[in-house]
Amino acid sequence: PSDLVAVATYGQRGVQLLVGFTPDRLQLEQAIATLGLVETQPRARDTLNIAYDLGVKPWGDKYGPPPGDQMSQYLIDMSKLMARGEQAQYKQRVDGFLDGLDQLVQLLDSVRGRKQLVLLSAGFDSAVTGGAQGQESKDAAEAVVSGRIWEVQTDRYFGDSAARDSLDKVFKAVATTDTVIHTVDVSGMEIGGGASEGLPQAVGRGRDTLAQLAANTGGRFVSNANDLEAGLVSLLDASRHYYVLAFEPLDAKGKPGRLRKLKVRARGDGLSVSHRRGYALSDPKRETSPASAALQAADTIAKGLTGGAIALRAVAVPYRNAKGRLALPVILEVDGRALSEGKTAQLGLELFGYAFDGEGRILDTMTIAPVMDLAKVRPALEAKGLQLITSFEVPEGPVDLRFLVRESASKRTGSLRVRLEMPAFEGDDVVLSPPLAMDDPRGRLVVPAPSKRLPQLEIPFRLGETPFTAEPLPTLANGATQDVCLMAWGAGASDAAGEIRAQLLDASGGERPIALSGSTRAVADADGTTRYVLTLAPKDVPKGRYLLRLAMGEPGSKDAPRSEIAVLVE
Known about the structure:
Layout: E1 5-11, E2 14-22, H1 25-33, H2 70-84, H3 87-108, E3 115-121, H4 127-130, H5 134-145, H6 154-158, H7 161-176, E4 179-185, H8 207-215, E5 221-222, H9 228-239, E6 260-261, E7 278-279, H10 290-303, E8 307-308, E9 312-316, E10 319-320, E11 326-334, H11 336-339, E12 346-357, E13 362-368, E14 371-373, H12 374-384, E15 386-392, E16 397-407, E17 413-422, E18 431-432, E19 436-439, E20 445-448, E21 462-463, E22 466-467, E23 469-470, E24 475-476, E25 482-489, E26 500-505, E27 511-513, E28 521-524, E29 530-536, E30 544-552, E31 562-569
Parallel strand pairs: 3-4, 4-5, 15-20, 24-31
Antiparallel strand pairs: 1-2, 6-7, 8-17, 9-11, 10-11, 11-15, 12-13, 12-14, 12-16, 16-17, 18-25, 19-23, 19-25, 21-22, 25-29, 26-27, 26-30, 28-29, 30-31
Helix pairs in contact: 3-7
């Protein structure tokens, strides 16, 4: 369940990555189910290729396989074409296949961790790289001895050196990129009278090359896989348990890209080890290709990583509008000083946002690429950062938000993961937003960004007709006041102005009351949400990080609705 999976194909156009590494099994099913089919309607494509089709309903019916066994027929047609083709054409296709495989493995170097590449193929004739074998080798040898040199194809008899070099190149790339190739022989997937009927050579001559690919990369070879499920289960079992070993090379200098071999042995009878075969020192001057940059960004999103050179913070507010539609508005704050470090006149950014459910399915996405004049925005950017406001369509239940910001010139990135529970907004239960430290958006750099499923961005951050923005990590100052908005839904939420209490919790859980200045104000809205405005007035609070908690109801009640947000006190 924790695996990330990608789907790629090889054809006349080379290697095509249909969907990058993603936790969304529905996207994978859709990509596999449509293999070989002509697209009659354009797909709703994803910029980072984490989703195959953004038009797939995230919580609707799943896609089934295409009508008929078109994949089996496709394999048969390809087998016939390979068998009937001229030797030179066949060799050219083998060269293209190995080159495409090398490109794919090199691309996978952008993804951190061990990659398990499962190759479903009929392989290629080993005579292309190793020369003729069996009766063919015997007949060729007799022709040479008898002087009938014209009957012998040199590269067929001895093998093609260029093809062998290409194969060795693949093995080196696999070792340096921490990739394993498992091969599944699909030549046994025959229908009707069988794929071998009427062919000048038997189907299955590529099995030895498939076995060679697996053996030289630490993978497993599944032979004659007319039962794909059993073969794939065996591959899963082989990679289910693993150990992580780390070491530091004594010689950290050397030629970048040169393969340094590794060997791992296991003590004990009957034990074998599949491990990384080598590594190479990275080249700091090597430029990252657009494909690799996209795969790196997708890898960060798919793995839900948080960190990077650009700091991010976010606050998400579960929301229900006047029509009862659920949404999850988010304020994403980007560190302005980190963005302004560059010396370029223009600041180009790429911002990606994804909402996943608890099972890893993609619910909604957001992508925006603003370009700003640093000379004009630098003061506001360094003072309060950049805020992006978006809203995702999500159902009730667990929601997993993942964001990535990339600066176009330097390629510096920052990522953030936020997990929360989307309430149902049903019954008499009171639903509260996080405490929102209010600020004037006119003094900030704010960028609105509609999502894929909510193209008409509805922003609930307002008091009547007056908009406000909120800080994901508010700063409270002793002796100063700070207005805080609390949104409330549900029975009794509209008349609780006098029942809202505020307190600070320190790192050990100790409670510290925080004074309120003046009375709490309630603002009703046409969306059915009551917005309460409180004015916090901290005094003599030690500096540090706290949890600001707002509770509604009788003091001491364990069932009182409450909400929290992290704050800094200066």
